[in-house]
Model the fold of this input.
Amino acid sequence: MRKALCVAVVVVLAWTSVAVAQEAVFRGLRWGDPLSLLGEVTQVAVEDTGIPGLAFWRKVNEDLVLGGVVPVESIGYGFLDGELAAIVIVGGDYKALSGIARARYGRPTPAYSTADSEVYVMSESVCVVARDGQGGLLMLMSGPLFYAFQNHEQWQIEEAAKEFQ
Done:
């Protein structure tokens, strides 16, 4: 009986982890999807992210209205070594983007949030909603990309701290 229960728990956990990993993050796309799934794209010039292999693209003729009600200026898709790792939505109303994130992900994670940004940490993704001038910005990142950014920021802090020695 105990052995059967353990096997059942392992099967349920394995199925659940596969289901979570396969969950779409935005407009049917999943982390790790190839660039080819976007269709016709143009590359976006961005300043150095500090993450080698990270490049951003925009879909040609992208629908720039979320859910048919929230207009935005642009939607960029970040690919790390050819796999979808980030989605950046720029220029929407901050309150609307915050409301979308809360409706989808629940309450922000207090340890990472500030007065000008809300951060939602889930098992496979991280969502950041921030004020960007008069509007807002919503960025979705795969968990591994978020932790790569954190490691890069820590390295920058350590390098800057050397100036005080």
